[in-house]
Amino acid sequence: MSETIRTDTSGAIAVGDPLAVRANKLELLERLADALAHEIKNPLHSMVINLEVLKRKLGRISGGDEVLRYTNVLGEELDRVSRRVELLLRLSRPDRGSEETTLTELVEEVMELVQLEARHREARVEYNTEGAMARVRVGRQPARQIILNLVLDALEALPSGETLHVTVRGEDGRSTLTIRSSTAPGATQGERTGVASLLAESVGGQVWAQDGTRTFVLPSGRA
User: Is the separation of the CB atoms in 133 and 104 below 8 Å?
Assistant: First the structure.
């Protein structure tokens, strides 16, 4: 159930705003993700340091080259985990209000997460940019949430092994994100897309889904 029940000052029961409920859930998840990422980051940093010490010691002993192959693999995997933790920390940082950025920067901040989800679903994501990107003033957190919602809805409709095309285009003083699949049927207005549409209105943009394509438009200079 996407709504909550609240009681006003007169004691009457009313249905809560679904968008506010979703925002509260996201805020809680952000706090939990931030705490978890910090808990992981400290021991991870310690493992990286100790692995480097081990590699130096192995380099000084006879026959250490064979073992170094395995430590290099461990180092690569630790680096991969570290990048994932950094991504989690970046996405869970508190919103600092409207900031000047571009739609390209916003998409690229979440693209690693998008690629991970695509691989989990045995799909591919092709990302392209076209034209000069206008600078915009927008809240990073809601803008990233819009992008993720649209991509996740599109991936759910994408058959295994197919490709999702993600394009950011700058034109006529506005920036447009399009998400489409050449094989999936028409884009449905799923719950995530509905939330993305409401969030887009709150940041001065627009979202719509039509003929297999989801679109997010941000005019330049919007607060």
Answer: yes
